[in-house]
Design goal:
Layout lengths: L4 H9 L7 H13 L14 E8 L4 E7 L7 E2 L6 E7 L2 E8 L11 E9 L4 E4 L5 E6 L5 E7 L5 E6 L4 E6 L1 E2 L1 E2 L7 E2 L2
Parallel strand pairs: 1-13
Antiparallel strand pairs: 1-2, 2-9, 3-10, 4-7, 4-9, 5-6, 5-8, 10-11, 12-14
Length: 187
């Protein structure tokens, strides 16, 4: 079993949305300091994989395994809160702001705002429908990040800044700890 059991147990007693940022930061820091896995994470060349550690109706815990230089699409979190902690390596986080009001389906005008490099143990928080970012590993080394969502991330929106387009996608897992390795849709 993973060393994420204390984190999961704490969050089962009191869900993420019932906690303050400092409390969530403390929980993720403790998990980041002492994590282990029963087996290596699934990996993919030039991309990242999503491994579900835990999911219930109030939250889910997911590990992302980033190949060196791999980046996510620009995305939101489906209106959910998301706490991300870097477990290994470094991750770039590029923040974006949505300039339109979201009323026109498939259209989104976004603009880059800020970039920062997160190292091992650093935390990032996302909340709200238009809280957008792109995350990626540095070119020289892979990375692993821990994500806690304030409910399972079933649907979210990805954005194309060059074409002013967006689309809703369904969240999937590449792997689920404790289950056979396969692509698993979030339900």
């Amino acid at each position: 079993m993973t060393t994420f059991r204390p984190l999961i147990g704490d969050l089962q007693e009191r869900a993420p949305l019932d906690r303050g940022l400092r409390d969530m930061a403390r929980l993720l820091s403790a998990a980041s300091d002492s994590w282990t896995l029963p087996r290596p994470l699934l990996s993919r060349e030039n991309a990242y994989t999503r491994t579900r550690v835990h999911r219930d109706g109030r939250f889910e815990v997911v590990l992302l395994n980033w190949a060196a230089g791999a980046f996510s699409a620009i995305h939101d979190h489906g209106g959910q809160h998301c706490w991300m902690s870097v477990l290994e390596g470094s991750l770039w986080v590029d923040d974006f702001v949505r300039l339109d009001n979201g009323e026109r389906p498939g259209f989104a005008r976004i603009e880059a705002r800020d970039s920062r490099l997160l190292g091992s143990g650093d935390l990032d928080l996302r909340s709200g429908p238009f809280d957008l970012h792109r995350v990626g590993a540095t070119a020289g080394a892979p990375a692993i990040s821990l994500h806690v969502y304030a409910a399972p991330l079933r649907k979210y929106t990805v954005y194309d800044e060059l074409s002013d387009r967006c689309q809703t996608v369904i969240g999937t897992y590449d792997d689920v700890l404790g289950e056979r390795r396969r692509l698993v849709p979030v339900r």
